[in-house]
Specification:
Number of strands of chain A: 29
Strand content of chain A: 15-25%
Oligomer: homodimer
Distance between the termini of chain A: 76 Å
Number of domains of chain A: 4
CATH class of the largest domain in chain A: Alpha Beta
Largest interface: A-B, 115 and 116 residues
Radius of gyration of chain A: 27 Å
Structural class of chain A: alpha/beta
Strand order of the largest sheet of chain A: 3-2-1-7-18
Helix content of chain A: 25-40%
């Protein structure tokens, strides 16, 4: 008989490890234990199931060749035994057994193992507020809940939905409610922006505007204080600022590692509650592995452990665990925190550290912004994309990249290339010469990622002096009290005209880019000039010229009006 | 007065360097010399101008903010002097002057420089065959030729076109002729595949099939021997095998560096005729820089110099030259040879080394193939993509990646990430854990690039034994004489059925994937089993199982029927 491999948890990391170890050791007895009856599903697909993009939940449990991954499938195709509806209660490390309870019968058993793997995943965080237990309050934690939510919508029971949490799952669920089903939908986010810590505020603002343009309300900086109900059923949500009617409330306030069984067995647990593993996905007990949402992994930028509950990482970690359980010394070096999300017609993505996180981690961090064409600007399908690079001024290392643009794979191309590059320690200079495959239907001769590195390079070397978007927008909000600066708009007169008309030429001066070299003497010398164009590129060029004629009190708005327009400021003309 | 910077060549690298150096040294006198009257254009856009995707040639000479890059633009916006219609005749390194001739007047001048840059680009290779000088024979070398080609088509003078050369420009031109204008179009390629040396034969075959499906004839392994004409005008093309009627012949047989002026000045030139530069784009004369299609650069995989005439590299090299001319020690480390092309509804791309090139370079090279879904297989826009990874068995380094799939940016996302990773020396194992940003609308939890690395890992460690597509297809072509092997088709019976019916169960045995573990005793032990599924993944899994029951004479066809179907074999049922 071969080795007994027992795996607790049957969603992502568990099945992946089970199948891998079985392929490597066909004589092993591999058993997966899961308390649920539905296993091995694509949890990240739940919003698309609720929206109707995926018509049947079974598709989330099927292989690419359309077999449903149930107990029979694992038995017949994989040679792996699945005990579903079976809860793991405790690990006896001395005897090398797992005590389980068959939920249907209540029967308890001790299952022996040679090697154990814990893949217990995560659980959604339930806010400790009144009403959290009302009928109609859901977390997005398993397929059963997803099926019930969709069932309620399909039966016409949902007219108004509130989502607590402006993270990825919350926003995807909001789109699912609104886009196909036309449900009146609101999102309440405690932090002052959506996707907190994942992207920085300019990116979050562009996303927020797009979602609001699609008629989903987003309330930022508002914590849910109470879920209201009547006769045991949800009727609304209260924040400090307002009450919102609702037939359904989705709590999408993040997840926590499900590590109790590991903690109870005395395995090492991190301060935030995740199971501690080494590069081989081995816990503090060499006979016990762990992977997926229940563990913490190394961050490839900070070199510190972090919590990254993602199905894509769970699968990779699961394969490494499978290798090691079979005696192949594979390594999972860590993760970089790549993120991508569709929202109606746009895509937002990030990898590495945000500026906020980088500063909190102690880097001498700064950001470069740009908003160029995503492909040759003469190619018919061209569109503007907005990118932000986070870098360290001292080491010139790139720490992160964020992108926002039209739906498609153009943003992911840049984010994925950046993830690969950053994980290898790439610098601004590496990014400047990174070779993105070029042809006009796909990219620009100077790719947006190269252009971004050029901005970072000029910033880092002190050649480019900028105003951050946040500061500029704050000035514009408090326009009447600001008298020490003047906008210098170097775009085409047709573009600049409405701004001059609205704000007056003493506040918003328009001189076209190609006339500055002869007309610079018109510029006032007693005020700071904020140079503005579409993306910031021409502004920098004119800043270098103005320096040469001793007009040095200038600042560039990187990202320019392409980004400002997408952020949805109320002072924008027209 | 500032430094005198003179730049010979005004298309890509030249203007980029000129504008960069001017931004860095506003007091420099920067002059661009070009013999053409049209400068600073996107040459890679010519096929899209001919096709009509780009309506006006001026768009290829315009900025993203719609200013035409002519002499006035460079003067007013950039502060750079352009002398167009002016040919550089010779460099006097002693006196630091360039002798030029104003083509309109015939006047000659000596232009002094402190620093000179050569950006003379490339010229198309003109085949030394009879008829190459007939009216109607064109190379794709400048905008004037493109304008004339489009003019002839638009005036109805072109019914039949022949393109010599199945490289990127040739195939793009063929699509331009056929797709919008409906011109009867043929491509003649001397080598036995399109895109020779860029991609390997399975990828080239899929592309060829798709282009042929779009009614462009492609003749492989046929050299053009003579261009036929009447009254000085083209009437056709002759190869050893056939004569093809034509009103127009496009010679797209590659380009050669235009380095005569550098050679005449005694600068170091490579054996293939490119100007030799260091990492700072400096020639063997420290006062003379060079960049773009006239230089050779370092290959980041082989560590050898190579010739990579691409507009995207020209721009990057130009910026580095500009930096160094201004005293900033920037470095252009080299290139990796990334390539991407649209062809009707598909995209093909590559980075790094092809198998053919890798073997020629002496690597212990092999390939992994796979053909999975490009995103979550349950997501509505999912499609099959085909990838090939080239790796070195000894070092486990990844040497190259090739991809083929539907038009869009999904292929470039993988190629660009691979380019970044490979240029940093990434191994198969790095690719296995590469974190591609994951959400169902964009990618699969196990991304195609990870899946490919898994195949390579299993191959490298000897766990996966394969038959190459080439060998399998050769066997199938010579089916009747092959008796020592048997196809084992493990797909769904509906998929396998037509094959069994066509080839007979003694040659094409169908047992579904999920029944092998109980039915393996039905397998003959005296024959080699070629295991087939859609992508190769299930085949490998069954190979590991069959090994465990001592049926070891098996081979997997990686890439599987997903790739074979796209390669257009004539034995494919239905």
């Amino acid at each position: 008989m071969g080795k007994k491999i027992v795996i607790v948890g049957g969603v992502a990391a568990g099945p992946k490890a089970a199948c891998r170890v079985k392929r490597l050791m066909q004589d092993a007895e591999v058993t997966i234990i899961d308390q649920d009856t539905l296993i091995s599903y694509g949890g990240c697909g739940i919003p698309y199931y609720v929206s109707g993009d995926v018509s049947d939940e079974a598709e989330l449990r099927s292989t690419s060749f359309h077999m449903v991954r149930d107990e029979a499938f694992f038995k017949n195709a994989k040679g792996v035994t699945v005990k579903s509806g079976t809860r793991a209660l405790a690990i006896n490390r001395q005897d090398k057994t797992v005590k389980v309870k068959v939920l249907a019968s209540g029967e308890e058993q001790d299952i022996p193992y040679d090697t154990l793997m814990i893949a217990t995943g995560s659980r959604p965080f339930v806010l400790p507020i009144p009403g959290a237990d009302l009928d109609g309050v859901f977390t997005i934690s398993d397929l059963h809940k997803a099926i019930e939510i969709k069932d309620r919508i399909a039966k016409g029971k949902v007219d108004k939905a509130v989502v607590i949490g402006g993270g990825a799952i919350g926003l995807e669920m909001a789109e699912a409610f609104k886009d196909l089903w036309g449900v009146t939908t609101s999102v309440v986010e405690f932090m002052p922006q959506v996707l907190p810590r994942i992207v920085d505020s300019p990116m979050a603002s562009m996303l927020t505007k797009h979602i609001r343009d699609n008629e989903v309300d987003i309330f930022l900086g508002e914590g849910a204080t109470e879920i209201l109900g009547k006769d045991g059923k949800v009727t609304g949500l209260r924040t400090a600022e307002r009450t919102i009617d609702a037939d359904i409330v989705i709590m999408a306030a993040g997840v926590r590692p499900r590590s109790e069984i590991a903690a109870d067995a005395g395995l090492q647990i991190s301060p935030m509650g995740a199971i501690v593993v080494n590069e081989r996905m081995q816990t503090s007990d060499p006979s016990i592995y762990a992977a997926g949402d229940c563990v913490e992994v190394m961050h490839l930028v900070t070199g510190k452990k972090f919590y990254a509950p993602l199905g894509s990482l769970a699968n990779k970690e699961g394969r490494v665990a499978g290798d090691n359980m079979a005696g192949i010394p594979s390594i999972f070096k860590g993760a970089i925190g790549s993120f991508i999300m569709k929202a109606f017609e746009v895509c937002i993505a990030a990898t590495g550290l945000s500026l906020e996180v980088a500063l909190a981690e102690g880097y001498d961090a700064d950001v470069a912004l740009t908003a160029p064409s995503d492909r040759a600007h003469f190619f018919p399908t061209e569109a503007i994309v907005c990118f932000q690079m986070v870098f360290d001024r001292r080491t010139r290392k790139v720490l992160g990249l964020q992108g926002f643009g039209p739906m498609g794979d153009g943003i992911s191309a840049r984010i994925d290339a950046a993830a690969a590059y950053i994980s290898m320690g790439a610098s601004i200079d590496d990014f400047g010469t990174l070779e993105m495959a070029y042809a006009p239907p796909f990219s620009a001769a100077i790719d947006s990622i190269n252009a971004l590195a050029y901005v970072a390079d000029n910033l880092c070397d002190g050649r480019l002096r900028k105003t951050s978007l946040d500061i500029f927008l704050a000035w514009m909000e408090d326009f009447s009290t600001q008298s020490d600066w003047l906008a210098l708009d170097i775009r085409h007169p047709i573009e600049a005209g409405p701004f001059v008309e609205k704000f007056g030429a003493d506040k918003w001066l328009a001189i076209p880019y190609n006339e500055i070299r002869v007309r610079y003497k018109e510029l006032p010398k007693d005020k700071k000039l904020i140079i503005l164009c579409d993306a910031g590129t021409r502004s920098f060029e004119m800043q270098t010229f103005l320096d040469s004629v001793d007009i040095r009190n200038t600042q560039v708005v990187s990202g320019g009006l392409n980004m400002i327009r997408r952020m949805g400021v109320d002072w924008y003309p027209g």
